[in-house]
Fold this protein.
Amino acid sequence: MPLSSAGVGMLLVTLVLIILGIDNVTIMGDNTGEMAQLTGINLGTGRTATAIAAGHYHSCAILDNGSVKCWGLNNHGQLGIDSDTTKGNISGDMAGLSSINLGTGRTATAIAAGGWHTCALLDNASVKCWGRNVHGQLGIDSTTTKGNISGDMADLTGIDL
């Protein structure tokens, strides 16, 4: 049975489309030949992904220069773009996608995505997490959500391990 005909499947397929980063919400992969039509994600001129992570409805990539870009649903700041604006669902979103502010001179070496939060291991061995924090999943000694308000990412400190 195709995923789109399963009871919950259609909801999942529709929500996952934003994660594809194809600048629209077209359902792909449920009909013969559609997978061959998928194109690469626009991560910026000359940029390539070296690692990827996917949360519930968002995806992130570490790029070849160590920067991080995230796209998809952003209702809790899980994209780390200092707003709650969803990215990747309308034309032009991916071309204008900015890198996440990891701190001055910092780059990512690993990335992980939870349901509505994201964490990066940085080049100085520190860890920063952003997004929903209702259960303290960001490790910042509070339950304050980070990444959804202007200035959040610049103020984000590493986790005290």
